[in-house]
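REQUEST ID: PR-0412
SUBMITTED BY: lab tech R.K.
PRIORITY: routine
TASK: structure prediction, single protein chain
INPUT:
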Amino acid sequence: MNTNDLKIFEAVAATGSFTKAATAMFTVQSNVTARIKSLEEEFGAELFSRKSRKVELTSAGKILMQYCKQIGHLLAEAKASVMNTNTVAGSLKIGCIETTMALKAPEILKQFEDKYPDVELEFKSGMRNALIDDVLNYELDAAFVPAPININGLDQISVMEEQLVILSSAQGPELKDLLSAQPLKIVVFAEGCVFRARLESWLSSKGILNYKSTVLNSIEGIINFVEAGLGITLLPEEVVSNYYSGRKIRTQSLNKQLGTMNTVLIFRKDTAPSAVLQAFMAMYQ
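STATUS: complete
OUTPUT:
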């Protein structure tokens, strides 16, 4: 077995096809078949279940896939460390939720690049659970996510505390009147968004279970819809004060339990952080 065998294994898993994996790896199908067979003989287990139109990982194959990701990650780190023994250099993939991307990412990027110009910093936005999965699966080096986090394999650093507020249109009825409307209209991100979950929890605490949701995928869109009177939402107060203070929007604070959001930087516990990740984490320690 060599690292190329593992790359072929990953290609088959990603494409669901020996033929497509051969194309992706610039080789022939017979070689892909032979290398997978060799791996199965070496591990003493079937790695793929062969079906008529595609192949899928078996339970043994899924276990091996986790180790493949770890091996690939370690090899990349080793290469970066050996090549850059005297400087902090390499790449770093950081995840964050949509509001962190809009509010904090530019500032973080500038501050880090000014100090470490040889590091390529890449940001990816996503929902909280998806970001957690990406960190666990070596797709991201670290991610900013709302606390609490209590997951095996992850460590965390506390980063910041934000205050959340309810937003409604300043041109429409007062919030108390909107809450009595049937049905109440809310403007939110998709399922899995922490702000949507907090808003729904707040409504539930007031006995409001019947509401109509409009789902959007950007902060700008949500602000526009709320200002137009198409529903209420919940976002960090800093979003409004820093970027939308001139808009016709009302804000209402929440109690401490629902109105406070703590953000943490999560990273894997099972491997020592690279020099680049250590430098990034030092900004918050």
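NOTES: The chain has three domains: 3-80, 87-161+262-284, 162-260.
REVIEWED BY: pending
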